[in-house]
């Protein structure tokens, strides 16, 4: 227990106690050495009476008549500091025992309360570190059969049998204090069996317990909760977005994390204003994004590259986007672009001439759409 009575904590006890009492306070460790004092010259010196208190495990008073019997000791009262049934140090009040005696138990109780608070704070920090390590282990999928993994789950009271889903939370804020505030706020919103931690990229990860009915995920129930979180967090940070992977057993949660992470990246490009993104809604685009960046020579991606090369003002690319959005309906596309239908036909013909693909042919329009998506998701413009 001596680790909890550090020099820093001892000095905190002294400073807080002397702020309300007109006497000098000394705090001694289990060796009888002064580690906190209002008289800084006495720090790290031996306190003989403290050694006696530690031996007897009871208070010892030193009056003026007793001072000659002790080396370098001043009159006062010295009391044992007890924490979890163990004497971990001594607290002393310098002054005539007749004056200081009435403060003895008050100082002792205050000291023990401060130590108890420090211990609880350390326990909370330890639990926080264990939780972070546990979340990292789950989203990486590493060492899930390790004995320590199950020990962490037990200490965190996590039921490994229940299905869960990974949610990635992203804020545009790069301030650690703001992100920490968001994490603390979210910690109050999530359920007891949910887990939350900040990962190395600065994003928050929530591993949420989900409910099932007839072995099917009650998706709407989960999404209502997530939407509520977003609404609450927007009061603090309007840039908040959340991406949700698929439900998985504990050994597959790393896949759910990857899905949520990739959905976030794709969704930010496709629908930058959308705040809640589901892998189920973006799975085809996640697939196209992977394809775009894994194939070195991609003839589909080259279609839009040709178009961009010939289309300096970007009119043809914009026309293609709108034509696809309007499901190939010429009248709607012309109205959306504020051009005549003949001008639209000219642009569509020009796209065909440059790319070799006719947008008015559904199969070839699909190829052009894939090319647009690959161009959008490609990390390397070259």
Automatic annotation (TrEMBL):
InterPro entries: CdaR-like_regulators, CdaR_GGDEF, Diacid_rec, PucR_C-HTH_dom, PucR_C-HTH_sf
Annotated ranges, domain PucR C-terminal helix-turn-helix: 317-373
Residue ranges occupied by any CdaR GGDEF-like domain in the UniProt entry: 141-265
One Pfam family in the UniProt entry: GGDEF_2
Domain Putative sugar diacid recognition per the UniProt entry, residue ranges: 5-138
Similarity comment text for this entry: Belongs to the CdaR family.
PANTHER family referenced in this protein's UniProt entry, alphabetically: CARBOHYDRATE DIACID REGULATOR (PTHR33744)
Name listed for the protein in its UniProt record: Transcriptional regulator
Species this chain originates from: Halalkalibacter okhensis
